[in-house]
Design goal:
Layout lengths: L2 H20 L17 H15 L6 H17 L16 H6 L7 H8 L14
Helix pairs in contact: 1-2, 1-3
The chain binds zinc ion.
């Protein structure tokens, strides 16, 4: 991964964390886009957070925060490790990283961790 890519992921992670911090409680107000003071960056980050929550993979807000912090840490101190699966050390697909830059695992290892069979019928979220 290039330095530029790492910087991009880092800035997206920071935006995501900022959005999470500004959103209090588990309930997210709809129609946030109607607020003129919300910048595009905020909106984008919130969008990503909503996707993450909607995917059901990160039901827990504090867990998501922890993953974001770990990912940022990795970029800062161990950039070679960023984008590699924590369990099998294979490269996490870019599409997955783009949607969830904080994810520490590839789809396969995440499935094993969650006890869902990777051989089962694929849903769209299996590729995220
Ligand atoms: Zn893996």
């Amino acid at each position: 991964m290039t330095e530029q890519e790492l910087e991009l992921y880092a800035s997206r992670l920071l935006a995501l964390r900022g959005a999470l911090l500004r959103t209090s409680g588990p309930k997210v107000q709809p129609n946030r886009s109607a607020q003129p003071e919300t910048s595009d960056d905020d909106f984008q980050a919130l969008n990503e957070m909503h996707q993450a929550i909607a995917s059901g993979r990160n039901k827990n807000r504090s867990e998501l925060m922890a993953q974001i912090s770990e990912a940022l840490d990795k970029i800062k101190h161990d950039p070679d490790e960023f984008g590699l699966c924590e369990d099998c050390e294979s490269q996490i697909p870019v599409g997955r990283l783009n949607l969830m830059p904080y994810t520490p695992r590839c789809v396969r290892c995440q499935s094993v961790l969650e006890g869902t069979s990777p051989l089962g019928r694929k849903r769209l979220t299996d590729y995220l």
